[in-house]
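Throughout this chapter, every protein is written as a compact record of paired, labelled lines. An example of such a record is reproduced below:
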Amino acid sequence: MSAMTFLSGTFCGKEIIIEKILKKSSYNILSDQDLIDRASQLSGIPGQKINNVFFNKTSVFNRFTHEKERSLAYLRLALAQALSGNNFLIDGFAGVLIPHSVSHVLRICLIADMKHRIAQAMKEKRMSEKEACAHIQKDDDVFRVWIDSLYKMSDPWDTSLYDIIIPTDKMTDKEIISLIDSNLKSEVIQPTKASMKAAEDFLQAAHVEVALSNEGHAVDVSVRDGHVTLTIHTNVLLLSRLEEELKSIAGKVEGVNTVETRIGKGFYKADIYRKYDFQVPSKVLLVDDEREFVQTLSERLQMRDMGSAVAYDGESALNLVAEDEPDVMILDLKMPGIDGIEVLKKVKTTQPDIEVIILTGHGSEADKEICMQLGAYAYFQKPVDIDLLSQALKAANKKIQDAKKQKS
């Protein structure tokens, strides 16, 4: 049986349509949240981080961790595994991840004109017209960013993305369901040998992408009949060595016959390809109001393949901690506003798994004793030998990784 995907603008009546379809059919519904939960189970990545993929909330550490690309790889795997079953109705953003070569999926878009949507929002949410307009615009912007991140298209309602686009404000529910039924019965949407093979290729590509991401790599993956093509979009200094490593990893995935690599359109840009090195910390937050010092330190850590972000005051640091959850923080004590000791207290209270290394030019023995009692991992005075600091960072990272293994 064919599968269906539903994408819709908010306040276009999607929920009622899906409810009525499910009542008269044997389809099982899969929402974005269902797929996020599956992807989280497969990967061990918290569901909220995977959910951020839809909203394009990219961590400041992402160019070092490839966290977004890894989350997307597991989301594709969860979706591809679901497609190997029968009778699925996929509701949400994830549906657009299915390649168009999988032709037994009916891609449905429900939309209405803005005037109708605003009226519905005002009725359902008791909003003013201005509030309703802003709410809908915000929802559409999220969808627009998601589609643009995948297909470089500015219009989320582009007809090339869907098999049918249904104006819900111009048709009755009965007419909409009848139209969907007739399309599902169309010969074009029926499973064929080629379409089922395309679904298998999609699943295998997802397995390859996950295997690569688990080794720290982020490249595009496509598969056809066991032949894997890997596309490298960012510049790399030792291309042949990277190609050999990618081929070796992909070649070990079950069912892969051959692997080739290609250079993508973005290869000649200034960005440098970075493999995520699990042995060194890639999410280090540097907190210090001495801008020149902390920027230099960040550059020196990056030269040692340690990913770092910078905050110049305690309040900014706490905001970054809440949004991006660094693994290790290097923290100065004397800063305007919230000082280092107060930041340390708050971090260790709210997120005790973050390791905090104190690096200060103004601390005393009493300060050191207080910091260690509060849970600091290490305490250094400026200036510090970069190799000594690097050793402490690697040791803190090992402690974090060991703790994660014990939890899993």
